[in-house]
Amino acid sequence: MVYVVVGVGVIILKDDKVLLGKRKGNHGGGTWSIPGGKLEFMESVEDCARREILEEVGITIKNLRKGTYTNNIFLDENKHSISIYIIADYDSGEVRIMEPDKCECWEWFDWNNLPEPLFVPVAELKKEGYKI
Question: Which of 34, 78, 112, 122 is the most buried (most CB within 10 A)?
Fold first, then answer.
């Protein structure tokens, strides 16, 4: 049986910019994505956001608030996920590449001028006209 994965994406704001990482690997490799990951069993969305940001970026976030969601179909990979978004403000720490096998770099971008290509969930947000 094939399942739909639930992911949590975290839109981190700092100085009116959003943090994106350039992905590595066979799932979206070479595309730009916001940080985040899979929601674990019995974990709150907010706890998942805090955990993933610490694991992937090495920083802490504050002022977490609920965002929107996207329905993501990866036809070439036969994958399907739902991404739930949390909007948060940067709190403290230095942005670092904590998972060098999964991420090439982290950079801050203006939401209206994001790099290409975008990872499918972020591209869906832009296509839907999501504003931060």
Answer: 122
Position 26 scores a pLDDT of 83
What domains lie within the chain, and their CATH numbers?
5-127 (3.90.79.10)
Distances (CA, A) of 59 to 3, 8, 35, 70, 79: 31, 17, 11, 25, 29
- Mean pLDDT over residues 18-24, rounded? 98
Res 1 pLDDT > 80: no
Confidence bin at 10 (pLDDT 50/70/90): very high
Residue with tokens 């947000």: 125
Q: Which of 86, 83, 95, 84 is nearest to 15 (CA)?
A: 95
Cα–Cα dist 26/87, whole Å: 27
DSSP string, 33-80: E-SEEEPPTT--HHHHHHHHHHHHT--EEEEEEEEEEEEEEEGGGTEE
CB 85 within 8 A of CB 63: no
Residue-level pLDDT at 76: 83
